Structures are given as C-alpha cells and as structure tokens.
C-alpha cells in the first residue's frame, strides 16, 4: 500500500529515473486532479511516450475501473489523426496507467491562459479538428464526457496553411459522472464544472450530444477567454448550466458576426434534442455564420469561404503559438 501511494504522490524528482511497467520516467509534464503525466521512455520500443498515472483511489472504484478498462480499449482502437494514440493501458502495483503518444506543444488551457481569446479563424481551425475527433468517437459509441481545454493538445502543424495540429485526449477518464451521481464522497476533487452538460448534472443518460455541449463551452471560451457560465460557487454553476441562458458571445466580442450567437444558443441548448446532431454540424454553423451565412461546402478542414467573404485576418493568425516543439 505504501508503495502504490509513493508511485502517485511521490515528488516528481523521486519518480524520475524509476521504471513503471516497461517505461522509464524522465520528467513530469503536468498534473491534473486525478493523474500525473510524465514524459517517459518505452524501453521495449525505445521511444518517448507520455505516461499517465491515475490516482490510486480511482483503481479502487469499481465503476471507474470497469469503464477505464472498457474505454481505454475502445480509445486505443480509434485510429484518428486528431485523437492521441493510446499505446497501452494497464495496472502495476495498484496504479492504473496509460501510455500514449507524447505530444510536443501545449494544451488549449495553457494557450488560452497565456494568449487570451483567440482570433476567430484560429478558434475555428482548432474547433474543426476537435469536432472531427469527437464525431469519430461518437460513431464508435464512445462519449468523451470531459471535453475541456486541458484535454485538447495543440502541437505544431505541417505548414503555414495548417499552423497547428490538435489532438483530443482522455476519453472516459472523468470522475464527474461518478461524483455527480453520488459514487464519490462529498468533498473529493471533481474537476472543473465549467463544461458539464445539464444531463450529466441531473444523472440522465448521456450520449454524444453531451460532448456537443462541452465542446460548445470550449469554443465559446476560445473566443471570449472565459466559459459561458461564471459563478461564485459550484452549486450556482450547476444551476446555471441547467437553467440560465448563456450570455451572447458578441456581448464580449462585439466585432464578431452576430450570427454566431444563434449557433452557440443551439450548441448550448439545455435539452440534447435541441442541440446540433454532431460537433461538426456545430462547427459548420459557426463557419457559415462567420462568413455571413454562406454555407460552406466542406466542414472539416481547410479554408471554406471565398476569399472576398473571409474576415480580415489578424497578423498572428498564421503564427505558431505554442511553447517549444
Ligand atoms: N499525450 C500527452 N503528451 C504531452 N502532454 C500531455 C499528454 N497528455 C497530457 N499531457 C499534459 O499533462 C498535463 C496533465 O494532464 P491531465 O490530463 O492529468 O490533467 P488535466 O487534463 O489538465 O486535468 P484533469 O485532471 O482535470 O483531467 C496537461 O498539462 C497536459 O497538457
Ligand atoms: Mg487531461
């Protein structure tokens, strides 16, 4: 027992150089509420990976454990350019771990904290990539449940037409649905409630449309610098997700086309039935509103509007915006 605790909560320097399963830990990348992520060396294949060690308490929660094993299998089977490939998921000394591709760059949380709201074209480029990943997952019957900026990794793209390449990560790894339906004890860290859909809060069954809601919250934040609902405490925030209308995007960004507001109203609808059917449909709506109602013919990648209808681009649009590489 002492050993499993030290695996997770040991200071970063204690774990550096140690071997966990067939991975040698090189450096801590970051930590969230329920996991620590390290850069590590896969000793079998001699390559760099990101190794995520989940908090031991999660390994003891049967609901989480069952979902972890099921969903990491499904996620590992997803072969998509915008989903972080999972190499292995397993357990060692009572600690669940996931080895996945190491993505050099930043996550959207850090990017927004550093740069503030993104220019519309940048936000749409990132959104389109995330949307294609989410829709692909939904087609495989997998609901992400925890779409948020911290789970969107942004790395350098291939060229100036594609300045960033975006990956979605952490499928099914949220504690939210456990805690919100009463599986965890009061006071435990649940993670951010900024992106949680009304049906997740009330414990109703969720499907891909709960990700449409979380995704719409993330895109809203990309454009304004803050999520749609800001309240002083968690209860008020949960109430707002369920009953309050989100403030119009253009209250915060009056220079953006007003047609965007209606698209967010739909993406953030309280009832899943009133939302877009897919994340790409939501992005298509945004693109259409961004170009003054000219429906794009292609929604997933690349420029879609005729040159003359495109909004004037800020100079930093095509500039790389991540740390290192
Ligand atoms: N495959 C990866 N490659 C590189 N960095 C990663 C990878 N996966 C996660 N990270 C980084 O590791 C850090 C911690 O991730 P983690 O998922 O534990 O926390 P989070 O998503 O920010 O929060 P939460 O615990 O609420 O999910 C983040 O800064 C993230 O950018
Ligand atoms: Mg994460």
TrEMBL record:
Q: Which catalytic reaction applies to this protein?
A: L-threonyl-[protein] + ATP = O-phospho-L-threonyl-[protein] + ADP + H(+); L-seryl-[protein] + ATP = O-phospho-L-seryl-[protein] + ADP + H(+)
Keywords on record? ATP-binding, Kinase, Nucleotide-binding, Serine/threonine-protein kinase, Transferase
Decide whether keyword Transferase is in the record: yes
Family annotation (Pfam families): Pkinase (PF00069)
What Enzyme Commission number does this protein have? 2.7.11.1
The record's section on SMART domains has: S_TKc
Q: Which residues make up the binding site for ATP? A: 52
Give TM segment ranges. none
In this chain the Protein kinase domain maps to 23-297
GO MF terms held by the record = ATP binding; protein serine/threonine kinase activity
The keyword Kinase is annotated on this UniProt entry: yes
InterPro entries, from UniProt?
Kinase-like_dom_sf, Prot_kinase_dom, Protein_kinase_ATP_BS, Ser/Thr_kinase_AS
Name this polypeptide is given: non-specific serine/threonine protein kinase
